[in-house]
Design brief:
alpha+beta, flat, two-stranded parallel sheet, 3 helices, two-stranded antiparallel ribbon, 4 strands
């Protein structure tokens, strides 16, 4: 996590905001700063030097599930 992002999260937290994060590792700075962390575990994997199998699909899935749950 870069310093600017860290300081923003810290500032929001000091203002009373609840911090929710989605990370690929539950043991990192942003996850540890968060009140709630959704962690998904995907190993970095590339096939034939061009196809990246490590995508943001799990993040999109989590966001869609959260938004549907909140919408009722």
């Amino acid at each position: 996590m870069n310093l600017t992002r860290f300081l923003r999260v810290k500032h929001f937290r000091e203002q009373g905001a609840k911090i929710v994060s989605i990370t690929n590792d539950e043991d990192n700075t942003i996850a540890n700063l968060s009140d709630l962390n959704f962690s998904y575990h995907l190993e970095f994997k590339i096939i034939d030097r061009t196809i990246n199998l490590t995508t943001q699909v799990p993040v999109v899935y989590l966001l869609e599930r959260l938004s549907r749950a909140l919408a009722g």
